[in-house]
Amino acid sequence: MIYHLRKIKIVTVYNSPANNFTYKDLDKLFNARNFILILGIRSGIVTETIRRGHTLYKYCIKSNCSIIFPNKPTHYLINKMIPATIDVGFIKNVTLLADLMVLQELNSDHYPVFFTIGTTNI
């Protein structure tokens, strides 16, 4: 059996809530390679970034990208009353074979997310 290995470009990104981004910015990231996983763009699920989240959502629909996120909150405000999922990923031409897992064992208001990925043979 012959396996063809594909290179996957993995990019980690942080964009401050004070900065907006455009389709042109997203094109620079997503068009870098055919198989791409982008992690860490602050999610649009949080109230103050709803416009950015809408931009990301519309871009993903237009560009055939998928949005991935854990099923548990990744950030708690100091009062622990308002949880939010601010860590998300975006994939294009990559098949995920495992779940995303939030590790809620650290002494922090922002929990790490484990992204376990694999690809299928096409």
Describe the structure.
- The chain is an alpha+beta fold and 122 residues long.
- The protein is 18% helix and 25% strand.
- The protein is built from two helices and eight strands, in the order βαβαββββββ.
- A four-stranded mixed beta sheet has the order 1-2-6-3, covered by helices on one side. It has a two-stranded antiparallel sheet with strand order 4-5. It has a two-stranded antiparallel sheet with strand order 7-8.
- Mean pLDDT is 72; it is low at 43-48.
Secondary-structure map:
Elements: E1 9-12, H1 23-30, E2 36-42, H2 50-63, E3 66-68, E4 75-76, E5 83-84, E6 87-92, E7 100-102, E8 113-115
Parallel strand pairs: 1-2
Antiparallel strand pairs: 2-6, 3-6, 4-5, 7-8
Shape: globular
Number of strands: 8
Termini Cα gap: 13 Å
Provide the succession of SSEs.
EHEHEEEEEE
**Percentage of residues assigned to helices:** 10-25%
How is the largest sheet built, in terms of strand order? 1-2-6-3
Number of helices: 2
**How large is the share of residues in beta strands?**
15-25%
Average pLDDT taken over every residue: 72
Q: Determine Rg (CA atoms, Å).
A: 15 Å
Which secondary-structure class do the elements indicate?
A: alpha+beta
- Oligomer state of the chains in this structure: single chain
Largest sheet: 4 strands, mixed
Runs with pLDDT <50, length 5+? 43-48
